[in-house]
Amino acid sequence: MDARAAVSSFTELVATRDAEARELPLDRSCLLISAVYDPELDVDAYLARLDEFAARARATASGTDSYAMIGAVLNALFTEGGFHGNDRAYDEPANSLLSSVIERRTGIPITLSIVLMEVSRRVGLPLQGVGLPGHFIVKFPDPTSALFIDPFRNGAILDVPACVGIVERIYRGRLTWRDDYLAPLTSRGIVKRVLLNLKNSLSGAKDYAGALSAIALRMALDPDDATELRDRGILFARLRRYDRAIDDLEAYLQRSPNAGDSDHIRTTVQYLRQERNS
Questions:
Q1: How many CB atoms lie within 10 A of CB 87?
Q2: How many other CB atoms sit within 10 Å of the CB of residue 51?
Q3: How far apart are CA 180 and CA 95, in angstroms?
Q4: Fewer beta carbons below 10 Å: N end or C end of the chain?
């Protein structure tokens, strides 16, 4: 599947004006994102690898209740499977590509959580993703339990105070805890967050063309997000494609005239016009 076909398939998969109309298949959505960056990628082959992990968990489970099954899944992925958080190269773009995470068995919290969620779904445990500020975790499958799983830390089990502690360590008092941080995200929200991480890591690596592809996917997922016009305009400016940059930044100002950065963007547009005409 070449990049254009992957973008087209992703766009078709997510196409709906009502963001809550239907949930997205996390596995296929994220693998199509991977296919945009790897034209040789076989999406079905990676879906089959998730099937294999689920089969391994099912075969080794000590029972059929939710605790036995989630224990078997955690064992199949983090003990036998060797999945782990990529502390050494946290910001590298590959950590946001599900195919790479499955292949290398390392990634960032959100992509490792997607592996856990998709393998668990295959054994009959529909887990929910929780987007804590700065860290992604998974809600334990028992609806009566206030426990969570941290796939970045080898499937560690967390209670609510531990979740509060994670946010406090990341933000060091700059953010006040709110209980709604533990609210589950929709699959659309999860895919959008994956693409945000990917966009930021590619931009940080100065792969502006790659970051533009991530923006195109985010805009397919949420056409009403004006911040993507702004970010695309900034990337076009870095590539010295001044006409495109000016068009995007002016469109952003039209849609968000009272945004907190509007004065800065207006100044940027003036500067870009000068650069274009110099």
A1: 9
A2: 14
A3: 27
A4: C
